Structures
1.
Amino acid sequence: MPRLAEQRHPGARVPDPGDRGRLLRVRADRRMSAEETTEDFDLVVIGGGPAGLTAARDVAAAGGRVMVVDENHAMGGKLRGQLHEDPADSSWWKGWELAEQAEKDAVDAGAQMMTDVVAWGLEPGWTVRLTYPAGRTGGPSQLTSRAVLVATGAVERPMPVAGWTLPGAMTIGAAQVLTNIHRVKPGHRVLVVGMDVLSLTIARAMQLAGVDVVGIVLPPTTVEGSSPRATLSRLAPMAKLAPARYMRLGGHFLGWPWVQALASRLVPRTLRMWGMPLQLRTSLVVIQGTDQVTGAALVNVTADGTPIPGSEREVAVDAVCLANGLIPLNELLATLDCSFLRSPDLGGTVPVHSDTLRTQLDGMYVAGNTIGIESAKIAEKQGALVALSIIDDLGLSSRRGGDAAGAALDLVGARRTMEFQFDANVQRGHDDVQRAWEKSGGRA
Ligand SMILES: Cc1cc2nc3c(=O)[nH]c(=O)nc-3n(C[C@H](O)[C@H](O)[C@H](O)COP(=O)(O)OP(=O)(O)OC[C@H]3O[C@@H](n4cnc5c(N)ncnc54)[C@H](O)[C@@H]3O)c2cc1C
């Protein structure tokens, strides 16, 4: 795969070797020694994304003994791959810089970090069972802690389609990691399948990196929610990110069902977004190729997603990126005595929790995409909120001040003013969880 020229990427930052050296030294000092097999903490955080790192920073600053574990080789979670342009002032959201800073802030506050380690089990009390990727040995097999925060983030929903196992076919998240973290182009001519906040921002990042994004089309008609009408409803919450004023205005009205119905019939077959063709009434049929991706078969569809016979055609591409939304990742909690609620507004099934992010289990907390798909800014706010709950429950005293109930209200306000949402009804999903929490009687 072709390497990206660093200077052609507007989000690229050549790290200052001095900075990096300082950060690594701080990290090394704070790491657990390989000989330790178990150790007691006030808080173990599972997942070093924006939610986990923010909570770790605040609880450590309040005097808590904190350990963050993450399965990746670097902290930061999905934040590390993010690159967006703010249409209001053309500033850049460079996730990898923010991730590095979030880790440094947590370490400076006294939190310890372990990377390349997977938490595979939780036992009440609390014991966190650990395992290591092949080849690494010598780390602790478990950690014991008064409190545990599950901040494991989200995973991509697969899109099974003929040809999806060919080299060159990948999820949109993989394309994001290749482009923004490894600075490698996913392909020369790329087709993006699926239209949502994530696929459009990552298509834009690929375009900025010099990739020819030949089209953004709808998923195969067999995929749930792939019709033009359903797709238009998903584009409404990202209206503020659109490059042109008419799109921002039009996107705002897409929140109304009758506008969606009308637009799905009248919208032009191809719209251009940042110059990339957004083919709102074209679906993928199959990915083509023998040893690798060489093309894709497409078909035009009606507003309700029915294929139009005779409109089949082929497009030559060397990579296809599949985007079918995100699912909250919370399987660790499924082994415990904890209820779950299914909420399409939140992206899937989430553990029932209070608005201050306590679960039904004493000493067990949740934050970030684990409890619903939202942006990194919201995950960070949830991290700060859950830290206040943990500090209170553990009898520590917060240096930052504030109370969890007030922070929970601020979070609701922050959602309203976010520049984009993954789902327009995300607050409705959180309200449903609150009702389930109250009905369940709260913490056991
Ligand atoms: C592929 C993908 C791309 C995304 N791109 C964007 C984007 O461009 N813009 C945006 O605003 N949002 C994006 N998001 C949403 C993103 O999840 C949030 O922005 C934010 O990063 C969520 O923060 P978090 O702390 O909840 O989780 P994450 O940032 O996902 O961090 C969770 C961390 O926990 C680790 N982990 C999970 N399970 C375990 C375990 N058992 N043991 C150890 N470690 C574990 C994960 O590997 C990860 O490092 C994306 C999400 C995904 C899945």
2.
Amino acid sequence: MQEISLDQVDPSEYDVIVAGAGAGGLLTALALSAEGKKVLVIEKGDRVGGVWHGYWVDGFRVDQGLHVITRVTRGAFVRFLKTYLSPPPEFILHDGWDFRVHDKTGTIPSSIGETLRWPLAGWRGRLGLVKIGAKIKTMKLEEMKKYKDISFFEFMQSRGATHQVTLDVMQSAIYMAAGVPITQASAYESLRTLKDTDKESSKLGSAKRLLLGSHDYDEGYVIGGMEGLVKRV
Ligand SMILES: Cc1cc2nc3c(=O)[nH]c(=O)nc-3n(C[C@H](O)[C@H](O)[C@H](O)COP(=O)(O)OP(=O)(O)OC[C@H]3O[C@@H](n4cnc5c(N)ncnc54)[C@H](O)[C@@H]3O)c2cc1C
């Protein structure tokens, strides 16, 4: 990648012009240039990466934005990186998420049983989570499309899922994935994220996932962090 200022650019020299050097723009440019296109990426800010960048706190590296990669052993994003980056990046799996409410910490429950025993919420909060969790995990992807024009908060309201603990848990999960509050996050995208599979499953399959939890969990980090990846792109 070569950096140039806009006044030196002759757009007619390029096959493709990409607006924005966030993850989307950079990876699009990476794929197109690997396919032989001459690509110009225009960035209005003073650095590349968009929300995808990092900083240091007390000697620890913090990656912001895209940092945990879902389906790191099977997903499209990892297949993409392995296709277009040589040598391919290496990944390390992590064992799951911890949740902190004031001074209590617990893992994110993945089944009805775990939710009902969750130490971080009272019984009303747990029941609220079980109810809305069951609805989302068993919802057909086709049905989710009905919620394209409303926010996730409006979806929760329409389902009567307004207990504060339920909203707080959903807010944390969605903020982590989308970087916006549930009042701004698309209900459709949030539902797809929370269902955590792009495959339709039978009623029996969904019920099993709810009762026993999901065993499809494979999230991980790229070794060297996302900024290392941006530099390589
Ligand atoms: C706190 C947080 C945590 C996240 N965690 C994860 C995670 O763990 N896993 C995951 O998969 N995803 C995560 N995400 C989501 C992921 O980071 C984003 O979806 C992704 O990085 C967005 O990339 P983008 O290129 O679409 O947009 P952006 O990163 O927003 O990039 C857009 C770029 O375009 C530039 N731009 C805008 N307008 C113009 C213009 N007119 N001309 C030129 N340039 C322009 C901007 O300056 C910016 O650099 C997280 C997001 C946040 C905020």
